[in-house]
Amino acid sequence: MNQPTNSAQWKSICRIEDIPVLGARRVAREHGTAVAIFRNADDKVFALLDRCPHKGGPLSQGIVMGESVACPLHNWNIGLADGCAKAPDVGCTTPFRVKLDDNGVVHLDAEELNRLAIEAFEQTA
User: Fold this and answer.
1) Nearest-CA neighbor of 97 among 115, 79, 110?
2) Which pLDDT value is given to residue 117?
3) Which pLDDT value is given to residue 31?
4) What is the 3-state secondary structure (H, E, C) of the chain?
5) Residue 73 is part of a domain; what is its CATH number?
6) Rounded-to-integer distance, Cα 45 and Cα 40, Å
7) By percentage, how much of the chain surpasses pLDDT 70?
8) Are 11 and 107 within 8 A, CB to CB?
9) Structural domain of 50
């Protein structure tokens, strides 16, 4: 799970129960590709751009195993903490800071939601 900082402005997204165990929930953004929030078997949460670095597959539709997700298109294993493909594959998708509070609410860094991976989206649109 990405480590939150005290200076971040957090946006409440959902309750942890709203994310399937070993699955994901998509968070649409006004601009840019959606963000996928993942939940593993240990109830750790992670957030990545919902786009595989290989061929752009929707990672939110992949299978979570430990702290990785398998892309549904070509089975690339992507690390949930850093967004990077596991060897021998190479490439990374954008990770987002995420936190789970004591009440079971999942939050994303609001500034990152508005800034990260927007440029790449605008160039392809």
Assistant:
1) 110
2) 86
3) 87
4) CCCCCCCCCEEEEEEHHHCCCCEEEEECCCCCCCEEEEECCCCCEEEEECCCCCCCCCHHHCEEECCEEECCCCCCEEECCCCEECCCCCCECCEECEEECCCCEEEEEHHHHHHCCHHHHHHHC
5) 2.102.10.10
6) 7
7) 89
8) yes
9) 10-124
Instruction: Give the total number of structural domains in the chain.
Output: 1
Q: What is the mean pLDDT of residues 74-79?
A: 96
4 inside domain: no
Q: How much is the mean pLDDT over the chain?
A: 91
- pTM greater than 0.85 (yes/no): yes
Residue 1 domain-assigned (yes or no): no
Euclidean distance between CA atoms 102 and 12, whole angstroms: 13
Please report whether residue 60 resides in a domain.
yes
Whether residue 49 lies inside any domain: the answer is: yes
pLDDT at res. 87: 95
CA of 118: how far to CAs of 32, 39, 51, 104, in Å?
5, 24, 13, 29
* pLDDT at 125 (0 to 100): 47
Residue 25 vs residue 31, higher pLDDT: 25
- CA-to-CA distance for 76 and 16, rounded, in angstroms? 26
